[in-house]
Amino acid sequence: MTETLFPIPVPALLDVVGETEKYPLRRIFCVGRNYAAHAAEMGGEVDREAPWYFTKSLAAFCASKSLVPMALGTSNYHHEVELVVALGAAVCEATDAQAEAAIYGYAVGLDMTRRDRQQDGKDHRRPWDLGKDVENSAPMGAITKAGSFAPIDQSITMQVNDEVRQNATLADMVWSPVEIIKHLSRYYHLMPGDVIMTGTPAGVGPVQEGDVLVGQIDGLTDVVLTLKG
User: Which of 25, 39, 186, 215 could be 33's S-S partner, Cβ–Cβ 3.0 to 4.6 Å?
Assistant: First the structure.
């Protein structure tokens, strides 16, 4: 066995509803501005020519029901609830049928965002990494396999301390999961373990220490995150 200079990180694993085996995360892709109302509240608009992306490292992942500290270096930390698409097959330059067949399942996730650091990037035409690739900023609930769930017009909601902040339907997405996979696979050899966070509806807003966040999509397992007080 090869010796390493320091311990190998613990794998990022997601529960799967009805399975004892875990789903190992490989990469986290995120779609920007996939709900028109959210794009508008951020002062932008949807690019209807093609979806566009940013990424989070695996250090951003944490399991649902985690208790985590507030993000460092921000005074404006925001919640964003999203449908997560988990891939279970390799796909490249996919057709519609291949893209759909590559979907292993779906989950609810949060794309937590240092909004002030993201705005810095926008203002100075710099990358968004400090705003988006944040430790513990991508909590995800258990995956429901594709045979038991299909995204159509289910409600997607975000609650902070039992107050509803975001409330929309998956039908409001500009780009469907199949369309996103088909497009993204033009640029990457997508593999099992890759997940795609598909964007957030309007209503994003700040959170603070002690808050309890619950993201929900009808038919999927909730994602819960508690910020240390």
Answer: 39
